[in-house]
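**User:** Hello, beginner here. Are you able to go through the protein record under this note? It all follows right here:
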Amino acid sequence: MYIPFDQLPPHARLWIYQADRALTAEEQEEIKPMLERFATEWSSHGAGLQASASFLHDRFLVLANNEAVTSASGCSIDSSVSFVRELEQRFGVSFFDRTRLAFLKDDQVEVVSMNELKNKVAAGEIDGHTLYFDTLVNNYGELQDAWPRPAQQSWLSRYF
């Protein structure tokens, strides 16, 4: 069962996928009904999930489920991964490259490879206060309250 993204409860579980490039407005308009259809049809062992999906900052695909209604099973999570893979193929984008990190700088998403991170920190281009899009955020309340968050408040804290 689809629920509008902005009506998710704070405890709703999230899966955040970062695209390797910004998606155009046209691509997002094409994806939007696909997201709603997926969320409407997404189920766990035959029980519909109270789910939603959204695209944030032109780059982040967020799938969500209200686990208080029905928990996502391994099979339902597998089906969501298959859906994301289909989007990858259709739009020529990758959502599974975990070696690139996204920061918010001057109101723009800046992507940095893991290989570049230490040099950017040493040069002062990224510091503990730089806002980081932590894709490990796992619930809607945290997304609303602390996303992006200062890098020092994430797993990146070891770099500062």
Notes: The helical segments are 25-41, 74-91, 114-122, 140-146. The longest strand covers residues 13-18. The CA atoms of residues 18 and 60 lie 5 Å apart. Strands lie at 13-18, 43-44, 47-48, 51-56, 60-65, 100-105, 108-113, 131-132, 149-150.
